[in-house]
Amino acid sequence: MLLKLIVIGFLTFIGTYTYVENSNIRGADTFALVATAIVCLIAFVYFRGTAKVVSGAISKASAVKDEVSTRLNAGNSDLYAIAEREINEGKADNGLWSQALVNVQGNEALRKVEYMKLRAKQLRRG
Q1: How far apart are CA 51 and CA 41, in angstroms?
Q2: 85 closest CA partner among 34, 47, 123, 54
Q3: Could you read off the pLDDT of 3-12 as tens digits, one per residue?
Q4: Contact by Cβ (8 Å): 8, 42
Q5: How far, in Å, CA of 38 to CA of 49, rounded?
Q6: Residue 90, CA atoms < 13 Å, CB-side half-sphere
């Protein structure tokens, strides 16, 4: 790994130095540009493996959130039934009905489900 970082740093130095020689950049700016390029590239290579770990952790957290959400919703089946009955009887809360449409970006096919979620949440709060 260390050899890989050294080679990448050297190649970055050569590329950046060649760019600097063909431009109007001189003095301390030259050093700053070359050093920044090397540090950024080494950091990218070093932390690329870390990104996989973070991605895996995010996936795990998402799975746990979905499981918790499923369990919470299972305990609220009566609340969803109330919300569905309100829709079927034409007694849906107009504000929530509109909010449901906005939440599903105008998709009428999903509006009823979204309303039921919002209404169940409202009923749960009391």
Answers
A1: 15
A2: 123
A3: 666 666 666 6
A4: yes
A5: 18
A6: 0
